[in-house]
Amino acid sequence: MSTALIADDEPLLRERLAVHLQRLWPELQIVAQARNGREAVELFDEHQPDIAFLDVHMPGANGIEVARCIGNRARIVFVTAFDQYAVQAFERGAVDYLVKPFDEERLAQTVARLRTPPVRPAADELDPLLDALAQRLQQQAPARQYLQWIKASVGNSVRLIPVQEVVYLRSDTKYTLVVWNGGEALIRKTISELADELDPQRFVQIHRSVIVALMQVLQVTRGANETADVQLRGRPEVLPVSRSYVHLFRQM
């Protein structure tokens, strides 16, 4: 039995896709539905589906970033409102796409392709496609203002921590541990909320519970089962890199 993940930030679209898939492919088991990109990565790691339907525009992490995390572990179908340029890019890659608003006839074509023996692209085939789509998405996105200060309670005081001094952040149940050059503190904000507010050019999530400042990374050591460890500059901590985020350091 084939399994699938659906990721879209619009509940009605998730449900519509699930209903159509159930009618066209009754044997397909939808094992999870994600509301945003980060949840999609977590649910993919948990359920390991054969197929991932990814909305291109999602908060937290867009569909292209999720596809990078999944790599060639599943067959990818993008659900997109992209223009013809991007559609052509999809067609050149070993992935499928649905243009919103899709109809059942077009979805039936996708299902027919997915029911054939899987052909998953190698990393060297998939990466250039995702790079082109990511660049296109970045060009279309409006400029964003990212977090500049993090407010943290230190004793009886409130400390304003400049984000350029942050070394890493680690999830601690409902709190997040912020480690910076001058110390550390717990804040009442989840790692997911912070990931959405930090500049992705300066900070990367390397584990579902860890975000690290790229400038603080000294080296990355590959481990077993496609995992890795991050060694920091001038610090003894070693941070884990889970399988879904190893691709971030592929060229390092």
Helical proportion, percent range: 25-40%
Distance between the termini: 38 Å
Strand content: 25-35%
Give the assembly state of these chains. Answer: single chain
Number of contiguous helices: 7
Q: How many β strands by DSSP? A: 15
Principal-axes shape call? elongated
**What's the SSE pattern?**
EHEHEHEHEHHEEEEEHEEEEE
Spans of at least 5 consecutive residues whose pLDDT stays below 50 are none
Q: Please outline the major beta sheet.
A: 5 strands, parallel
| Class from secondary-structure proportions | alpha/beta
Mean pLDDT: 86
For the biggest β-sheet, the strand order reads 2-1-3-4-5
The rounded Rg comes to 19 Å
Task: Explain the overall architecture.
- Helix 4 runs antiparallel to helix 6.
- The chain is 31% helix and 32% strand.
- It is an alpha/beta fold.
- It has helices spanning 11-24, 37-47, 63-70, 84-92, 104-114, 123-140, 191-197; strands spanning 3-7, 29-34, 51-55, 75-80, 96-99, 149-154, 157-162, 166-172, 175-180, 183-187, 203-207, 210-213, 217-222, 228-232, 238-241.
- The model has no long low-confidence stretch (mean pLDDT 86).
- The chain has a five-stranded parallel beta sheet with strand order 2-1-3-4-5, sandwiched between helices.
- It starts with a strand and ends in an 11-residue tail after the last strand.
- 35% of the residues are buried.
